[in-house]
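Reviewer 2 asked us to include a model.

Predict the structure of this chain.
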Amino acid sequence: MSVSWTFQPAEWIELRDAVRRAGVPALVDHAARAWQAAKSQPYSAKYFLRGWTGVQAPTAYTGPRAVAGPPSKNQEYLDDMAQMAAELREQRLAAERQAAGGNA
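Predicted model (structure tokens):
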């Protein structure tokens, strides 16, 4: 990409704020996607400025987290099946213990 970087003072401030907020990698990524989607090749960085002002700081991945609210019917079913499986395992272990004790 080769574009002109002729900005008005207020536009330089907008660019500075976007860099501070979102970081250079996020702005480069946005520019690359905008460049590919452009109907004609942009000649000025002003083409990207409006999009850059809307780019937000990337969110940090914090891993999976619980969803608030009542459990779904599917989750209730899965919980019931897990409980049944635990009970059946316990019954089988008890039967195995009894069989092992009866053979001694």
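The radius of gyration is 30 Å. Helices lie at 9-22, 24-37, 46-54, 73-102. We have added this to the supplementary material.
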